[in-house]
Amino acid sequence: MEKRRLGTSDVQITPILMGTWQAGKKMWVGIEDAETIKAIRSAFDAGITTIDTAEVYGEGHSEQIVAQALSDVRDQAVYATKVFANHLKYDQVLEACDRSLKNLQTDYIDLYQIHWSAGTFKSEIVPIEETMRALNDLKQQGKIRAIGVSNFSRVQLEEASQYGRIDSLQPPYSLFWRQVEQDAMPYCIQNNISILAYSPLAQGLLTGKFGKDHKFDPADNRAKNKLFQGENYERAILALEKLRPIAERHYTSLGNLAIAWLIAQPQAQAIVGARNAEQAVANAKAGDIYLSADDLQEIDAIGKIVTDHLDQDPVMWSWSA
Question: For residues 112 and 135, is the Cβ–Cβ distance under 8 A?
Answer without folding.
Answer: yes
